[in-house]
Amino acid sequence: MAFRFIVLTCLVAAASAGLVPAAVSYAAPTYHTAPVAYAAAPVVAKVAVEEYDAHPQYSFAYDVQDGLTGDSKSQHETRDGDVVHGSYSVVDPDGTKRTVDYTADPHNGFNAVVNKEPVAVKVAKVAAPVAYHAAPVAYHAAPVAYHAAPVVHAAPLAYSAPIYHH
Questions:
Q1: What pLDDT score was predicted for residue 86?
Q2: Closest residue by Cα to residue 116 from 139, 145, 89, 140
Q3: Spatial distance between the Cα atoms of 86 and 122, rounded to a whole number of angstroms
Q4: Pick from 87, 89, 88, 90: which is nearest to 70 by CA?
Q5: Phi and psi at residue 115, to the nearest 5°
């Protein structure tokens, strides 16, 4: 797949540089001037090869406690091979704290347990309401004749599943 991408990229670069002539032209005839000599820079393609880790391991965590907005959330997760354990919590707008404990492994798949509990934290408003009083506007509209256009129904459309070619 990467080889096809590299070949396609080289062809596009060559065509945009004028190295590959256009096959069909529907434009008016053009008058050519003397050719300009130039040298194209060589195209060097580097392919990054990622190393495969047969037993990946990681652990991460974060915690956010914002007193100004009331935003409160945290997460931690660990992975050892194909087994992942983690948990995250967030304070929802209804004032409850949602905590999700999850695990994933090849035998049991992904499993999550969701708990909700009330929180005594009041979420602060970000912006105060603005008082707005507009001056009254004098408006006198001329009478308008209104006639509804006839309703026309189109025939139903037929849909089919997309066709994929391999």
A1: 96
A2: 89
A3: 27
A4: 90
A5: -120, 140
C-alpha closest to that of 65 among 142, 137, 121: 121
Residue 140, pLDDT above cutoff 70: no
C-alpha–C-alpha distance, residues 84 and 78, integer Å: 6
Edge-to-edge, what's the strand order for the sheet holding 57-65? 57-65, 72-80, 83-91, 96-105, 109-118
pLDDT band per the 50, 70, 90 thresholds, residue 126 = low
More confident residue, 150 or 155: 150
| Residues in CB range of 58: below 8 A, 6 or more apart | 77, 78, 79
Whole-number Å distance between alpha carbons of 49 and 117: 47
| CB 99 within 8 Å of CB 88 | yes
Stretch 23-46: mean pLDDT:
64
* Band (8; pLDDT cuts 50, 70, 90): low
Q: How far apart are CA 97 and CA 115, in angstroms?
A: 8
